[in-house]
Amino acid sequence: MKTLDNYFNGNREISAAAEHVEVVDPATGEVLARTPLSTPAETNAAVQAAAEALADWRRVPAPDRIQYLFKMKVVLEENLKTIGQTITRECGKTLGESIGEMRRAIENVEVACGIPKMLQGHISEDIASGIDELMLRQPVGVCAIIAPFNFPGMIPFWFLPYALACGNTCVIKPSEKTPITMDLIFHLIQSIGLPRGVLNMVHGARDVVDGLLDHPNVKAVSFVGSTPVARTIYRRAAENGKRVQAQGGAKNPLVVLPDADIDMAVRIGADSAFGCAGQRCLATSLAVTVGDAHDAFIEGICEAASSRRVGYGLDPEIQMGAVINHASVERIEGLIQAGVDEGARPVVDGRGAVISGYEKGSFVRPTVLLDVPEGGTIATTEIFGPVLGVIQVDTLDHAIELINRSAYGNQASLFTTSGASARKFRYEVQAGNIGINIGVAAPMAFFPFSGWKDSFFGDLHGQGADAVDFFTQKKIVVERWPKDWTRQF
Ligand code: NAD
C-alpha cells in the first residue's frame, strides 16, 4: 500500500505520521493509497522551506517567473488523460468531467502567465511640486492553499499559479480524501525545474490546517470547503493576522419561467444537478418552477434523472459516477428521508443504488423530490449529492424572494426567453455567480470565482485580478528628488 509523501524543499519526504487516512476508489471500494496525517514538525518544515525560498524567488523577474508556468501548462496538457484518470479513480466522477476539471486548472495557469502586465503598479507625477507617488505590488510571503475533495486537480490552481507568479511561495494541503491527484501533479511538474522550496505540499487533515493557520510565517490562506469549516478557517486565520479567502458551501437554485425553452432547461438543469454526482459547489440542487413551467419541466427532469447511466467513471458509457464514500451515501440518503418526513415526494428515488460489478461502491442514483416545503431540509441544506428538490411558485418575485432567504449565495440560475426577466433576476438575486440559461455558471479564470453570504468569507476571491490583489501587497512610495541635486555630466 502506497503511503503518500510530503514534498518540501524540492524533495519527496516520507512522513513520520503515526496515523493515516485510506484513500478509497469510491466506485470499486479499492484502497488506492494512504494519506499521512503529518506531524507538526512536518507542517513546520514545509512552511520553513517556503519561507527560505522566498527571498530569491521574489527577486526572479516576473517575465522569468512565468516561464515556469508556460512549462507547467505544457506538462499538464501532455498528461491530461493520466491526471484525469487519477481524478476519476480517487474522486468517482466521469473521465470527461475529470478532464474538464483539468482544463479549468490549465486555464488558470494561462491567465497567470499575464502577470507581468497584471502586476504593474501606477505612478502619479507631481502630486506636489517635484514630488512623485508610486504604487508597487510586492508578494505577500508564504501562502497556504487548503483544498476540498471534489476538484482535487482544479481547485489548487485557482490560487497556485497566481501566488507563484506574484513572487510568493506556497504550501498546499490537499484533501486527505483525494490527495493522489496533487501527488501526481507534483511528480509531473518536477520536470519544470522550479527552484527548491517555491512549491511545497504537506498531507493531513485538521491538525495540519491548524498548524498552517497558526504558523507565523504563513501570511495568506486560501481555503475551499464546507461552510462550517470555511467560517472557522476565516476566523482563526484572521485572528492570527493573516489575509484569508475562504470559499464555503452552497445551495444553488435554478428558476424556470413559463417562457423558457423547457427542453434546454431540462437538459442543462439535469447536467447541473446530476453532473459530478451533484458534488459541485455550483451544482443546482433546487429547481423553482414558475406557474405553467412546472409540468413540462417535471416530466423532462424526471425522465433525465431516471435514464441517467450511473456507474464506474472510467467506463465511457457512464454519465454519472459515484459519490465520495459510504458516509456520504448515508448522509445523502438521510437528508432525502428527512425531506420525505417533512412531506416531500420522491418521484425519482435514487436510494439503495446497487451497480452491477461495483457492489462495494458508493452510489446514489439521481433523485427528484416534489412538494418540497420552502423552509424544509431539502430546500435549505447543502446535500452535495445528485438530489434535486422542486418547488412550484406563481411569480418570479416569489422565486427571487425564496432565493434571497437562503443562507448561501454561491450561484443562482434562470431559464427564460425574456430579457427583462433576466435583467431583473441578475439585478435582484443575492448570489455571487448568476447563470442566465446556464446551469453551471463557473467563471472563467480571468473572472473572480465569486460567492456571497455563507458561501464565502473574505473580500478578494480566487482567480484573475482578484487573485493578483490577494497575492500582492501594495506599497506606496512618495519621493522627492530636488533639482539642485542634479549633477552636470
Ligand atoms: P471540508 O470542509 O470537509 O474539507 C475541506 C478542507 O478542510 C480539507 O482539506 C480538510 O482536510 C480540511 N478540514 C476539514 N475539517 C476541518 C476542520 N475542522 N478544521 C480545519 N480544516 C478542516 O470540505 P469537503 O467535504 O472536502 O468539500 C466539499 C465542500 O466544499 C462542500 O461544502 C462544497 O460546497 C465546498 N466547495 C465549495 C467550493 C466553492 O467554490 N465555494 C468549491 C468546491 C467545494
Description:
- The strands form six sheets. This protein has a seven-stranded mixed sheet, with helices on both faces.
- Helix 1 (40-59) packs across helix 8 (206-214).
- The protein folds into two domains: 2-248 and 455-477, Aldehyde Dehydrogenase, Chain A, domain 1 (3-Layer(aba) Sandwich); 252-436, 3-Layer(aba) Sandwich (Aldehyde Dehydrogenase, Chain A, domain 2), CATH 3.40.309.10.
- 38% of the residues lie in helices and 22% in strands.
- The chain has helices at 40-59, 62-78, 80-91, 95-112, 115-118, 160-165, 180-189, 206-214, 227-239, 262-274, 293-307, 326-341, 377-380, 396-405, 419-428, 464-470, and strands spanning 6-8, 11-13, 20-24, 31-36, 122-128, 131-139, 142-146, 169-173, 199-201, 218-224, 243-247, 252-256, 284-290, 345-348, 367-370, 387-393, 408-409, 411-415, 433-436, 452-453, 456-457, 472-480.
- It has 489 residues and is an alpha/beta fold.
- The longest helix is centred in the N-terminal third of the chain and has 20 residues, at 40-59.
- The termini are far apart.
- The model has no long low-confidence stretch (mean pLDDT 98).
- The protein has 16 helices and 22 strands.
- The structure holds nicotinamide-adenine-dinucleotide (NAD).
- The site of nicotinamide-adenine-dinucleotide has 28 residues, from helix 8 and helix 9.
